[in-house]
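For the sake of transparency, this paper describes our internal protein records without simplification. The tokens are whole numbers drawn from a learned vocabulary of local backbone shapes. One such record is reproduced below, unchanged from the form in which we store it.

. . .
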Amino acid sequence: MGMSQKMMELNRQLEVVSDRQIDLSMQDADGRLYSRASKMAELGADLHELMRECDLPKAEAELLMRLQQTRSQKRHS
């Protein structure tokens, strides 16, 4: 394998790693968003507040609130 082929392969690998890093950073941002929304629900935020502050669709905000209610009931049982 010549030097130019090695450089092309390294560039290709660098692009793959760069794309993966972008994917991971976006996943991390989503994770932080859901963590924040979960904490807000735990502290008593209402449905519309979760939707507005965390940019969640109504169905996701409702699901998050139901999950939080279930957790809360289990803690008090």
Remarks:
- The chain has a mean pLDDT of 85.
